[in-house]
């Protein structure tokens, strides 16, 4: 992914772009149609009041956080007019459905700048729980990168700053503790995305006890539940589950298969909700961050944060289903 400075993004009037000949609709209209069509197909839980969205407590403070967040890896690294309109519609729907945590990184190309610009366009500045990461080596380089991320995202006080993939973790941990004490950030944490780093992540959690751990966790990649999630739960560390669909691999596994009737027992009306509710039914998980730029998928994902969750026996049944 490219790194470096990205200028401001102007999408004013993009939803009114003149359609090409042949009657094709513009990006804003396409987004609206996709969102409305998806909403009509979803169960009533998907259209419920945002106040019914599942929330979880952040152990470090007791603050509650909506359990469905929004990831931006690849999906918000965009520049084309139609893509930006879709991203704005997604962010609007996400916030309107009660969502709060939006996660990014300087590794994600234009994503931080896109989030900042769209949040400003929508009047959401200061209303979202913004999370990003430091992804470099050296104290001064880390400070410069974090300050640039905050500028891009339009935040003078970041809600959550994470050490991305443990890059120079001991150095940045010192800076983040100092920034939290000074009120420049509200929480700090560490992130990773694959099992090969779990031993190192475990050592870091034990030594540093950050406020948040972001780690991969899904029906396709459940291994972090063996040691990392219990450790986080016992140490009072909030958990953000990334890669909830394993980069789409879970949908590949169920391609052509019908959602089992017993999914209705925990209010899952789609495979996406099936996958997300399995994650959220682990009490160690605070939030999960599916990434999308499809407004219909936003509504589908947010529905997973409403209604019943599977119990322990059903969770095992769900695992077995995906292994067959």
Keywords, separated by commas or semicolons:
alpha/beta; TIM Barrel; 8-stranded parallel sheet; two-stranded antiparallel sheet; 10 strands; 13% strand
Can you walk me through this structure?
39% of the residues lie in helices and 13% in strands. It has 324 residues and is an alpha/beta fold. The protein has a single domain (27-323), classed as Alpha-Beta Barrel (TIM Barrel). The protein has an eight-stranded parallel beta sheet. Helix 2 crosses helix 3 (111-121) and helix 2 runs parallel beside helix 10. The longest helix has 16 residues, at 81-96. The relative contact order is 0.15. The model is unreliable at 1-33 and 39-46 (pLDDT under 50).
The CATH architecture term is Alpha-Beta Barrel
Residue ranges: pLDDT <50 for 5 or more in a row?
1-33, 39-46
CATH superfamily: NADP-dependent oxidoreductase domain
Main sheet summary: 8 strands, parallel
Strand content: 5-15%
Radius of gyration, in Å, reads 19 Å
Indicate the overall shape: globular
Strand order of the largest sheet: 3-4-5-6-7-8-9-10
Number of helices: 11
Mean pLDDT: 88
SSE arrangement, N to C? HEEEHEHEHEHEHEHEHHEHH
CATH topology description: TIM Barrel
User: Share of helix among residues?
Assistant: 25-40%
- Main structural class: alpha/beta
Instruction: State the name of the first-level CATH class.
Output: Alpha Beta
Oligomer: single chain
Total count of strands: 10
Number of separate structural domains: 1
How far apart are the first and last residues' alpha carbons, in Å? 35 Å
């Amino acid at each position: 992914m490219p790194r470096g400075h990205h200028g401001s993004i102007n999408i004013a009037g993009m939803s009114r772009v003149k359609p090409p000949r042949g009657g094709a609709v513009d990006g804003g209209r396409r987004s609206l149609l996709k969102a409305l069509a998806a909403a009509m197909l979803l169960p009533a839980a998907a259209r419920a009041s945002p106040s019914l969205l599942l929330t979880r407590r952040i152990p470090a403070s007791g603050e509650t956080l909506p359990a469905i967040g929004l990831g931006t890896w690849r999906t918000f690294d965009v520049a084309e007019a139609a893509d930006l309109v879709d991203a704005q519609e997604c962010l609007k729907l996400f916030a309107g459905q009660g969502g709060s945590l939006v996660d990014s990184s300087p590794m994600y190309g234009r994503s931080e700048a896109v989030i900042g610009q769209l949040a400003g366009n929508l009047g959401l500045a200061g209303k979202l729980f913004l999370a990003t990461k430091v992804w470099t080596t050296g104290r001064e380089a880390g400070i410069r990168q974090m300050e640039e991320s905050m500028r891009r995202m339009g935040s003078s006080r970041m809600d959550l700053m994470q050490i991305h993939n443990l890059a120079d973790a001991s150095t940045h941990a010192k800076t983040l503790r100092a920034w939290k004490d000074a009120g420049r950030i509200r929480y700090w944490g560490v992130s990773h995305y694959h099992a090969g780093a779990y031993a190192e992540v475990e050592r870091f959690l034990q030594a540093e006890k950050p406020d948040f751990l972001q780690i991969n966790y899904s029906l396709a990649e459940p291994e972090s539940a063996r040691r990392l999630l219990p450790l986080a739960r016992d140490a009072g560390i909030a958990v953000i589950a990334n890669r909830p669909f394993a980069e789409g691999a879970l949908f590949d596994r169920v391609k052509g298969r019908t959602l089992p009737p017993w999914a209705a027992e925990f209010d899952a009306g789609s495979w996406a909700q099936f996958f997300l509710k399995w994650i959220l039914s682990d009490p160690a998980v605070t939030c999960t961050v599916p990434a999308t730029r499809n407004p219909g998928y936003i509504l589908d994902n947010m529905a997973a944060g409403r209604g019943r969750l599977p119990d322990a026996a059903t969770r095992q049944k769900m695992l077995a289903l995906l292994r067959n």
